[in-house]
Amino acid sequence: MSKPGLPQGTRDFPPETVYRRNFIFDTVRSVFELYGYEPIETPAMENLETLLGKYGDEGDKLIFKILNNGLDHVSKKETARAAFENILSGKNDKEITERALRYDLTIPFARYVAMHHHEINFPFRRYQLQPVWRADRPQKGRYREFYQCDADVVGSRSLLNEVELTQIYLTVFEKLGIDVEVHINHRKILAGLAEVCGGAELTTMITTAIDKLDKIGMEKVKEELSRKNLGTSQIDIIERYLHIDGNNREKTAQLSALVPNNLIQSGIDELQYILNFLTASNKIVLDFSLARGLNYYTGVIFEVRARGVNIGSIGGGGRYDDLTGLFGVPGIPGVGISFGVDRIYDVMDELNLFPPAIRHSTQVLFFNLGEEAAAKSFELMQGLRQKGIRCELYHEKAKFDKQFKYAEKKNIPRIVIIGPDELETGIAKIKDLQSGVQEEISFEELGRVVPY
Fold this sequence. Notes:
There is one protein chain. The protein has 452 residues and is an alpha+beta fold. Helices cover 41% and strands 19% of the residues. It contains 17 helices and 16 strands. The longest helix has 20 residues.
């Protein structure tokens, strides 16, 4: 007999955790809809070609590939052997796998827009709350299966979208009680840095190295840049760029002085546009070390970090001006953000931010005192349920002590007792387990008295 267990990087969620997660989902969903976003859903798996090549080399390595059903169509052993050799060498082979679990919600959304663009009314504001999967190394705050909550606008180049998405971040986290900083940067600034260091073709390489700064530190980043054949003077510019510090105004001045470049200035101007709308907030931080290693970003990029807890980013996103072009439908710009629900949960749990009355479980337990009494209790219970009162009947006749303990363990606040005496008089006993107060109420008045 095998010992029960879970795949590494996945978790079970007991009721208390699900209630808390739903509190986060409901909060995020309510703000999305407040800003005019509409829900869609996409399948858990996509065609592998839909996902590959969209996340950079590092991202592609983390895609969970799905084996073809029974490998039925691998007809010859030689073909199968060659296919497996391709897979083991890091290549893909359609003989083995043609599908994969989605890595994020953005690429599936781009595929959705490409397939349905004739039916969509642009600009299209969508939100999506679904799980994603990454073959990452599990650690605190990093899982292989986790939920994302995304909001995107496609069909518009207006920077007002970036302003509103920033405000959505601020609103959601204010409602959740999390003190955050929204870090912003611009891919034009990173592209301009690459131009100064030798050419636009260096953008992906430099961005990928900078994106690892928090994980590996400055010296390792410099070593990686050196291995990519960047010279000492180029690495020195990048190091000084990454050391830019101060308030937002000071950072902008330092950047303009360090690497004067038209592309960089264009990025600064767009970031300043966003800051001008949000002058009342002290939570917006210009962060020129922010890179967001995904290849598809083209403009403003976001990352959210919780103050007072060391758990990594709890949200991120950015502008992608031709993502649907990857699927043969060019010219549909977009921008979006994502909330990392699992990390948000960990932050709220660590900082004790969940409201105390978050459970929505049973409000009333009817004791089971025999077949006839149970039948009457069931009838009355159905009447309460029609009024929206959550209640249940204990599953079998049992001693009072056992039924009391069941109610206490489930934190059920009230019990209703109907036995032979109560059947005869038509009067039930109701006890509040928190105060210990017991009342006698007629069956007809039960629905009026029981609710809080």
